[in-house]
Structures are given as C-alpha cells and as structure tokens.
Amino acid sequence: MGQLSTHVLDTAHGCPAAGLALTLQRLDADGPVTLRRLALDADGRAGGPLLDAAAMAAGRYRLLFEVAPYFRARGLALPEPPFIDTVQIDFGIADAAAHYHVPLLVSPWSYSTYRGS
Questions:
Q1: pLDDT tens digit string along 65-97?
Q2: Residue 93: phi, psi to the nearest 5?
Q3: Long-range contacts made by residues 110-114, C-beta under 8 angstroms, separation at least 24?
Q4: How far apart are CA 113 and CA 108, in angstroms?
Q5: Which residues contact 24 (CB under 8 A, 6 or more apart)?
Q6: CB 78 within 8 A of CB 109
Q7: DSSP element (H, E) containing 67
C-alpha cells in the first residue's frame, strides 16, 4: 500500500525538528499545486503520511521545508539573508503502490536527503 512520509532531524541541536513548517506540492504542467501545509510534530514527523494510499499518484512532487524560520524560533541568530532559508526537494513518484520516505537532515549551514524506507 503506497504512501509518502518525511522525517526531519535538526543536526545543529541533535534532535527532531519539532514545529518546522513544510509544504507538499504536486508539480503539474500548469505549475505547482499545494496539497498540504503543516508543522512537524515533536518527533519531527508529519503525524501520519503526507499522502496515503488513496491520494498516492505517479508524478512529480515538491517538499518545501521552512528551515530559517525554524532555526530562528530555536534562538539561533542567522544572517539576513540566511545561508539556507527554504530547502526545496523535487522528487518523482513512479510507483503509487510503493512507500516513499523523504528524510531531511538539516542545520543552518547544510542539509542532506535520500530516499528512506
């Protein structure tokens, strides 16, 4: 049963990125369509799938992680403009029956992602 999920870890503080805002978009021929906006829970997760089996469809998608506002809320003094403001990850779903997990490891100065399990 297909689904899309994410998990964000704050590598500057060594903890989940609780409260980090994110947007999920589908990338259509006419441009991006926002599907969801939410803040991550205490474990740095969406509190459930971003897309469940009923909503999964093959196509191109984008996750927008609002990194600079998250770190400012944690009390870090960031320059203006910040080095990393919003992390944008564009990815494809080829098999709507598969599980796609898009984790993000992030600090104010770097980030890393991969297709997780």
A1: 999 999 999 999 999 999 999 999 999 999 999
A2: -110, 110
A3: 110/11, 110/84, 111/67, 111/84, 111/87, 113/89
A4: 15
A5: 4, 34, 35, 36, 37, 50, 51, 61, 62, 63
A6: no
A7: helix 67-73
Domains and CATH numbers, the chain: 3-113 (2.60.40.180)
Buried/exposed 68-102: b ≥16 CB within 10 Å, e otherwise: bebbeebeeebeeebebbebeeeeebeebeebbeb
Give the predicted TM-score (pTM) of the model.
0.96
Please say whether the beta carbons of 4 and 102 come within 8 A.
yes
| Mean pLDDT, rounded, for 15-41 | 98
